[in-house]
């Protein structure tokens, strides 16, 4: 199932500058695995060493923050837009 993944500026070095890429998978976990296979290293910037979404990275499937739905098991139907958004802190 083809989905669209929006890549934040800080991670575009992994995608040769592309702000949006296509990936495949029935769940967010599968999409991220395919994304890392296509763009080596990007997965480690999104997931920590235990395989969980990093604390300061937000991921949305459609309009839903995956932390409040099924996490990495969130379904990613054909045509879904996924957004990877690094948290911004400041003061």
From TrEMBL:
InterPro entries (alphabetical): Beta-grasp_dom_sf (IPR012675), Mopterin_synth/thiamin_S_b (IPR016155), Sulfur_Carrier/Prot_Modifier (IPR052045), ThiS/MoaD-like (IPR003749)
PANTHER family to which the protein is assigned, alphabetical: SULFUR CARRIER PROTEIN CYSO, SULFUR CARRIER PROTEIN SLR0821-RELATED
Protein name per its UniProtKB record: MoaD/ThiS family protein
């Amino acid at each position: 199932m083809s989905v669209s993944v929006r890549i934040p500026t800080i991670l575009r070095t992994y995608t040769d500058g592309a702000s949006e890429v296509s990936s495949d998978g029935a769940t967010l976990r599968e999409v991220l695995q395919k994304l890392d296979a296509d763009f080596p290293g990007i997965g480690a910037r999104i997931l920590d060493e235990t395989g969980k979404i990093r604390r300061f990275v937000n991921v949305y499937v459609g309009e839903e923050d995956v932390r409040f739905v099924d996490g990495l098991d969130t379904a990613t139907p054909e045509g879904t837009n996924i957004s990877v958004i690094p948290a911004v802190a400041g003061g």
